[in-house]
What does this fold into?
Amino acid sequence: MSESFSPNDILEVLYHGLPLDLSMSGYLSVLPALFLILSIWFNPKAIAKICNIYFSFVLSLITIVSIADIFIYPHWGFHFDSTVFFYLKNPEEAIGSGSATEIFAGILLSAIFISIIYLGYSYIIKRQILKLKIPKSIGKTCVVMIVLMAALILPIRGGLSVSTMNVGKVYFSDNMFLNHAAVNPHFNLMYSFFKSEDFASQYQFFNKQEAIRIFDELNKQPKNDSIIKLLNTDKPNIIFFILESFSANVANDSLIAPNMNKFAKEGISFKNFYANSFRTDRGLVSILSGYPAHPTTAIMKYPQKTQSLPAIPASLKESGYNLSFYYGGDADFANMRSYFVGSCMICDITSEEEFPLSDRLTKWGVPDQILIDRVYSDLVEKQPKEPFMKTVLTLSSHEPFDVPSKGFDEPFINAVAYTDSCLGSFVDKLKTTELWKNTLIVLVADHCMQSYPSGVDNNSPERFRIPMIWLGGAVKAPADVLDYGSQNDIAATLLSQMNINHSDFKFSKNMFNPDANKFAFYSYVNGFSMINTDGSIVYDNDKNSIIEQSGDKTLEKKAKAFFQNMYLDLGSR
It folds into this structure.
């Protein structure tokens, strides 16, 4: 954060965060309280051994979560939670965001803190345990200890009111960073593990019938014979470039991304376009399946659910398209392969395993230049059966931004410039081939970089506005699209241009339909936003209130209904 905070801000954080700290302390004190009750009957040395095991485990866990949270928050903009363990199925990929210095510092700090805290335990708590003696009145002592143990329910629940302790109880400021600072990271992690997976019962702003009615009215697709046609053909070859972390503020900068700027002038540029989320796994599903991202979970985590999703590649396969996917990293990361095979019907997958070790030059795998060169060589040498759809997921603009060129001092900017140059080279070469005249290239980001620029709230629309450009010989003429839309709208918008039925994509709307509602929707960590030409709203579920609103007051009802339907749909799959 580039902001400075006053001593009063720090005191406010400590004061408002105290309930979660006490609650977490209460949870961690339950077993030690039980051990003390057992000490009434058992030898203190035996109890001390049990306590040694418990405290060693808990102190180590607390330290590791604390250190991990310190390093993760600047990158992600939210606390360490249960979703992290989904990514830890591929540990090499999961730590790829951190630099070697950060990883070393994290391990070193963890070792130091664990040692210091355990020494404190040994010299203070353990010594007291060893001094315990069997009381004269075992019965009375036992009753008192049980009552005291039961009293832990007060800090754990945060009192005796109907509502129980939750993360949102410590929110106190309009500045989300201060709210996050007040959240106990250990409570946050535990809380995220115990969230219900009965998705259909979550976020009930309206009764089910009313929520569905509002959503149906909001996302209706009236038939209109005057929808503009922007493509020269109903069956173009399609190349999707899904660009890692390309935010609009860097993609629109002609010094950083001169090729993206050139493409925007040559093709169809969507000026008010938004990512649905802040993660690649969610972004992929939004882009290819027209399915908006849930902030508290990723549908890609559940292969049995993703298999029921529609997908642009699957729809094109039914129309005779040849499909393939390219990624320079591990295609098994975050269950991607199950999604691409099971939902998208893509079996031809090229990932880091198909490249020699000498090409795997970064933590994430193969740099974009090598990956994109492979795509080009497959196009001109293998000459795939037409029509085809190739989906390419870039990775060089992901932390730690270790790219083989240096043009800018800021690592993220330098990585974006590198990928931009790779795209420019690819397009220039493709223009010289016969493929160009019948090819549509779709350039769209998976999400924005959450840590750049600094000083912007992680729920702000600026964090979610991304580039989308349609380019190629299949495009009739350059155009700027000013209507608002988001990744989930790509499916209906593209398929309608190709006269392919898109009714299965219930959350996707055709941005070129003049009679459809035009809006963008995104979700951040347990919150959501809706934006149109008349206004915007940002709603926080932890705070249970609007944190930003302008213009159109009806957006609150529409956004809530849209969000509720997302969870109703997820629960039904």
Observations:
- The chain has two domains: 7-193, 208-221+235-572.
- The first strand starts at residue 237 and ends at 243.
- Residues 208-221+235-572 form a domain with the Alkaline Phosphatase, subunit A fold (CATH 3.40.720.10).
- DSSP finds 20 helices and twelve strands in the chain.
